[in-house]
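User: I'll paste a sequence; please echo it back and then give the predicted structure.

Assistant: Echoing your sequence first, then the prediction.
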Amino acid sequence: MRREGGKVSNKGAVTIFITLILVVMLTLLTAVIYAVKAKCARAKAAAALSGAMSSIKADYNSYIFENYHLLLFDKTYYGKGDGETERLIIEYLENNLGDGFEVRDVVISAVNTLLADDCAALGNQISDYMKYSLVETVADKLIDKVKGIEDADEPVGEDELNKIDEETAGGLAKTDGMGEDYEDVKKAAEEYIKEHPEAAEKYNDKEDPRMMTNTFSGLYLAALICPEDVSFSENRVDLLDVPSGKKLLATYFPDLEIDTSFRSYGSLSGSLTDMNGWGDSLKNYAAIIAYDSEVFKCLRDQRERETYLNMEREYLICGEAGDPENYVGTIKKLIKLRLGFNFAYIITDASKMARVSALAATLTWWAPYLQPLVKYLLAGCWAYVESCADTRFLVEGKKVPLVKKEEDWVTDLYGIKELLSVEKEDDDRGLDYEEYLMILMALQGDKLYYRTADLIELNTRQFYPDFRMENAAVEFAVDAVIEYGDTEIKLYREDGY
């Protein structure tokens, strides 16, 4: 301070004060500018990373999208390795960030594939596709058809089996709970005749229709009824090298064949109920059943599109290595499915049961305790003959009612030898081959997802040999470290379809 004309001057102090304020303001301004630049750099880096990840997503597999309506990218880029995705992200960042930025590190920290969590992402994409296709699916139509049929998925229920068990208890008790065994019964009958020579004229097992069905298997029928214009692929599936094999083979159990001798009540009872319980599964798996019916071929739907197998839906049902096995396996399952329905009908038909009762009495004259048992075994035999005819009609493109009425029955008790000549009017009642396939698919449950993945992989590998569904990514997360000047920017981002 100094005096000027008797007054004290504060100019120096003001100058110092203003200078200090300016220094502080410049410091703050510099800090703000630095923070803004850092924030802008971070925003630019984040936008660049987002763009890089979008470019990866944009490189989806077009073959799979066009044919199967699924969005995915190969995280190995068709055999180039897991690091290829990281390299492409780094390249994108370097090309788009500009001067002053340096990409220090990019790591794919997490990947979600179509097969993860028991094919959860595959199921979600299929459900979304079927939901937004805005069309009533074939599965919905089938559900509507069977809705009015009480216990459609359990034609021979527990109550009916209990009644049969009560009626056949005597025969079961004397045959170790199994019913008949042909060789044992024949031996017992011969011993009876030795003791009662006068009964020899009555013994004639040639009247037994089971003598003919005993050699008529599902394999034999499948060969007889196979349409001439159907072609089987020569390709074979390496079941250890597909998604379902890696997941399901450890729990694989072969399906039990129908015992076509119809001598054991235990075997018949098992065959009658093996295919029960598909109703809830048809509803629960409606989306994938409808999807598979839309995108995959079958015996009655031989599309021109090049595929690894021709019996694709049959593969979904059987999971065998080749078309012939899957075709035969499907025929056997169709017969078994129809067996339950046909047996359920025949035991309510008084005239048919009177006929099998009379024949059972003739065949068991020497052991009356077997008569009730043989009656039901003969009913099962006749139901099998009808089931074989039903399956033939389905393969030919005709419809077969799920639950039959008297006018729907087409075979005779001894009709197995005339199976190819029996005729049926073609009408709109009932379900066709493809609808019965949907019922068989419903019985596969979660296996459908893995076998669907098998077929997509097998077909895609015809064009992209290194493609594997286990590498089919639908979501991924990236950790990135980018330097801007002396600022280190750490980013984390998740993205997916």
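The longest strand covers residues 101-113. The radius of gyration is 37 Å.
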